[in-house]
Amino acid sequence: MALAITSSTSISRFEASRDQTAKGPLFGSFQPLDRTHSHSTIVNYSRRQYSVKPLNAESKRNDSIVPLAATMVAPEVAEKVEAEDYEKLAKELQTASPLEIMDKALEKFGNDIAIAFSGAEDVALIEYAHLTGRPFRVFSLDTGRLNPETYKFFDTVEKHYGIHIEYMFPDAVEVQALVRSKGLFSFYEDGHQECCRVRKVRPLRKALKGLRAWITGQRKDQSPGTRAEVPVVQVDPSFEGMDGGTGSLVKWNPVANVDGRDIWNFLRAMNVPVNSLHSQGYISIGCEPCTRPVLPGQHEREGRWWWEDAKAKECGLHKGNIKEENVGYLNGNGNGAVHANGTATVPDIFDTPNVVTLSRAGIENLLKLDDRREPWVVVLYAPWCPLLPGKQCFNKMIWAMEGSYVELADKLAGTGVKVGKFQADGEQKTFAQQELQLGSFPTILFFPKHSSRPIKYPSEKRDADSLMAFVNALR
């Protein structure tokens, strides 16, 4: 069980405050609070809360661990505020510094708020909390798939700040079922959402049920596709807090308006410890299989789930960022066009007269030929994939390389090389896996002129020049 962090001076200041008011109304009498002194009262209250309380506590408060003084003050200091009040507060804090926003969050929620720490540059949040001088709590999700460097970093942060990070773990039975049924790397084929749901979202949901608010390191410049409108404070649109129900959890984003470069300038200026992976080209850091370094000039989120579209790059912890019209991206494969009545349209892709649409019979005939009249290059694709009953989603990873494939087809027009496409999802998927070497979508095959066995394109590079080099090397 992790401990909440406390200030050694908070109790003495609290007692001094009681001494100064001894000649006035009794502290425990139910007198209305003097609004001119309400700020100092809140400060003392939040510093007084130092009891042990795990993040995954039951949703109802256990009064036996609440300090006696807190039960004597009326009204309750960390009062529940309606959603529209947080919209107003977000506007008021729009130009506030991260330190000021952090201080406001810790002041308002005391021991019922915690910082979500991922082991990346959001260590800045811990530094800001430390600078406020208030007690604060930190939790992290250990998915079991983190880099060794990240685990070492956790230990360094704990020692540097003298804190205990409250770790949350996925359910072992759920992880076992996922791995046994789909293997260790199913996310490369059908999107990262299922794995993230088991290893991150559900443990987070459990953690937040023991809180009334949480603090994240989201920034608007992190992911233009999903975080461009993140406010500094909001009622959490996705998760519930200890009181249960919609609106029971508040989400604070103190660095929402801060540029990533300014975050790093702050970390260097304050000599804050950072994950050693950053020096190896990693910027945004998550689980080891789904994180890689980025090249100079690349956006930081290009190192996360790089096989998916930018609008899909949320693991589910911040799925509330994704607008309704983009809800289909939640499964990691994107969303198709939608009519005003909510029904999905079915546009095809690689739509050019230079790309031949192959049926199951057509691809089977092509596969059987030992002596073809001309070579073929064929893309196995899946423009539609199941999301929810009655809904479907567009595979943006394939859509993103559509231009390159169409350009390839145009370049090969009249050269004697045929270009085709075969929709290999749904009932065709098993056949494609067994007979056409389908691994993940899209898979590109070259059928030589005098060979029955197709050759699979081995590279992740989808640009037209790379595809053309592949074809020219084999035709």
Q: In summary, what is this structure?
A:
The chain is of the alpha/beta class and 475 residues long.
Account of the 3D structure:
It catalyses: glutathione disulfide + sulfite + AMP + 2 H(+) = adenosine 5'-phosphosulfate + 2 glutathione. Residues 340-475 form the Thioredoxin domain. Helix content is 33%, strand content 10%. With 475 residues, it is of the alpha/beta class. It has two domains: 10-321, HUPs (Rossmann fold, 3-Layer(aba) Sandwich), CATH 3.40.50; 356-474, Glutaredoxin. Strand 9 (384-386) and strand 10 (392-394) form a beta hairpin. Helix 2 (38-48) packs across helix 5 and helix 14 (402-412) crosses helix 16. The protein is elongated and about 75 Å long. The model is unreliable at 1-53, 57-83, 312-316, 318-346 and 384-397 (pLDDT under 50).
Sheet of most strands: 6 strands, mixed
Instruction: Indicate the radius of gyration in whole angstroms.
Output: 27 Å
Mean pLDDT: 74
Straight-line distance between termini: 64 Å
Overall geometric form: elongated
Number of helices: 16
Q: What class, by secondary structure content?
A: alpha/beta
| Proportion of residues in β-strands | 5-15%
List keywords for this structure.
single chain; 475 residues; alpha/beta; Rossmann fold; Glutaredoxin; 2 domains; 6-stranded mixed sheet; 5-stranded mixed sheet; 16 helices; 10% strand; elongated; disordered N terminus
